[in-house]
Write a structure and sequence with these properties.
This is HECT domain-containing protein. Keywords: Transferase, Ubl conjugation pathway. The chain has about 210 residues and is of the alpha/beta class. Helices cover about 60% and strands about 5% of the residues. Helix 7 (about 95-100) packs antiparallel against helix 8. It is flat. The two termini are about 15 Å apart.
């Protein structure tokens, strides 16, 4: 709904979305009269505020009431730093070992390509590559860090007879190219990942700019 609101190009399109979602918008208190195309930004913000803040207020207050048992809430408010590691997720620093353990290897994978993969991870960690560990994870999964609950499905790698890698973010699968030399492997990995992320960033900027 938010995407349709944000991408509306004229008042008629925007009103069409509002009419289709009339009952829902009325239910969540976000129904508003549309008089100009700029109203779409306020409408989208209202919907986001409801889902991110208002919708969770009741469960959050219930959670706080539960924490008051035995004075836990008071201690949290008095010593927030001591409880930070318990309530706040700190992304794990990515390393060659972390990513090597994260990705499972599909059966019948090319042994040489897997060796190149491990060497590549170490090169990225050592700063001898044009990309970063975060770039590699984004290319394969769309995330720049490992989520608190992990990935589903589990990230995997496979080897295909092609020149460049392919990242499938829908199933967290990274397809590695099969090359004759490690140098060719690294150059192709660097080139594909760097340029793919650059193009995705440009497309995202173009989308939000409109």
């Amino acid at each position: 709904m938010i995407i349709r609101v944000n991408t509306a190009t004229n008042v008629a399109d925007l009103n069409s979305v509002v009419n289709e979602c009339y009952n829902y918008l009325e239910l969540i208190g976000c129904l508003r009269i549309i008089t100009s195309l700029s109203d779409k930004y306020r409408l989208a913000e209202d919907i986001l505020v409801y889902h991110v803040i208002k919708r969770v207020q009741a469960p959050f207050e219930s959670f706080k009431q539960g924490l008051k048992t035995l004075g836990v809430l008071e201690k949290i408010q008095t010593y927030p730093e001591a409880f930070y590691s318990i309530f706040c997720h700190k992304p794990e620093n990515l390393s060659a070992k972390v990513l090597s353990d994260l990705f499972t290897v599909c059966t019948l994978s090319d042994v040489q390509a897997l060796g190149f993969w491990n060497n590549y991870l170490q090169a990225v960690e050592d700063g001898k590559s044009a990309i970063t560990m975060e770039d590699l994870l984004i290319f394969a999964t769309g995330c720049n860090s490992i989520p608190p609950a992990g990935f589903k499905p589990t990230p995997s790698i496979e080897c295909l007879h092609m020149d460049f890698p392919i990242g499938n973010k829908c199933n967290n699968c990274l397809a590695l190219p099969i090359t004759n030399t490690y140098q060719e492997f690294q150059e192709n990995m660097d080139f594909a990942i760097r340029n793919t992320l650059r193009l995705e960033k440009e497309e995202s900027s173009h989308y939000f700019g409109h």
